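Preliminary data (for renewal application), glutamic acid complex.
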Amino acid sequence: MNKEVRVRFAPSPTGALHLGGVRTALFNYLFARKHGGKFILRIEDTDQTRFVPGAEDYIIRSLEWIGLDIDESDIKGGEYGPYKQSNRKHLYTQYAEQLVKDGFAYYAFDTPDELEQMRKKLEAEKASIQCYGPATRMTMKNQLTFGDEQTKLMLQSGAPYVIRFKMPESEKLVLKDIIRGEINADTSILDDKVLYKSDGMPTYHLANIVDDHLMKISHVIRGEEWLPSLPLHYLLYRAFGWTDTMPEFAHLPLILKPDGKGKLSKRDGDRLGFPVFPLHWEDPKSGEVSKGYEEYGYFPEAFLNMMALLGWNPGNTTQEIFTKEELCNLFTLEHVNKAGSKFDPEKNKWFNKQYMLVLPNEELAKYFIEGAKADGIEVSMEKATKICGLVKDRCNFTHDLWKESTYFFIAPTEYDQVNKKKFWKEETPELMKKCVEFMKGIADFSAKNLEDTISAWIQENQLSFGKVLNPMRLLLCGACKGPHIFDILEDLGKEESIKRIETGIEKI
Ligand code: GLU
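Predicted structure:
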């Protein structure tokens, strides 16, 4: 890349950062790192009606948790600040006025009622274009219909106004998107978007273009929902005379529901039981609390890894586990898919598991000890390390380690009914009694010896392994789960194992 890469993540603080936002931030970050460029955080808070207290702080904490370090922001500083649009308010007026002066925008005075009437009228007429734009603006109350003199008087009288972009009447635009290729647009069906309001606030479109220009943004990487705004944005660059330094655009594909039908929403997460926000979030308006990936027990590295593969692929490899550094080296916008990417909550767990499995058992033991402690049980480092080695393959999260192994410390008081139905037959109590008598005679209770002797006993008695070992497991653990049964027996020890089997036969 011969130009300096400067990309920005430009969220509006209207709520918690959702997965789409995380993915946009991540792809911007990876692109910046790949090209030795800058990753900028700009807060787009011009729409005061949608402002949610705490959202900005939440966004910043989320980026920190994921490990996306920011090069320029209000906290980090930078040459092009301030990086929050409400603190840049003074900048936008001159640009809006310049567009009016140059004939690319105009004042409009329509009241909300009048706009509503226009909407209804167009709807009733079943007009082919139903917006405030080239086809309708000459029927409305604006500078184009009033003339400059009257407009001046209206402004002097303090009448509320907006400044609208004057969409070219009929121009065919051919624009470029790095991911999607050529984008065609016909301006005759586009609307005269509001750029500025008389309260002195720009709208998203004006502020976004002015800031991208002033902050020397080289590439705009953002969600697909902004693709319809691309023609307007291009026309704004053209109207300002900034096309030479206009950024390149890349619109990222949607993240789809697990069944692939439509855009992933918060409700899908609630319905299917997976988090849709990186961190814990309490909505200040509704009071609704949402658990984040962090609280669910995801490693930030695993979360980052799985987010990177949502819509991007590394090319000719089946590798799925990547460090952040590897992703920074490999990332290209050319390998971002056009089509939406299906969100797979089960695969997310798999990613977490891969990150967990590479940790040494001593490291996992710390989580195990913490879990046991919360249940009032003290476990030595040595024992925790050993059990982690046995059970980790069955866990997706570090908090599963303890939850999956409580039976090593607490004898079951209940037995899984589904397993019971399946494995506890009429002849089972007798069989268990016989087996336990045999086990009483085994002196060496090591897993290896138990496996040899019990297997031999099963064969001598012409029994099947399942018929003996499944019910035994049920009595030892309360359910048919856990590692190799002989490892469980060894760990419980002879006395406890026999006790569990004998009391279990009576209790089950
Ligand atoms: N503020 C917009 C958003 O929240 C930014 C869109 C853009 O990146 O241009 O999505």
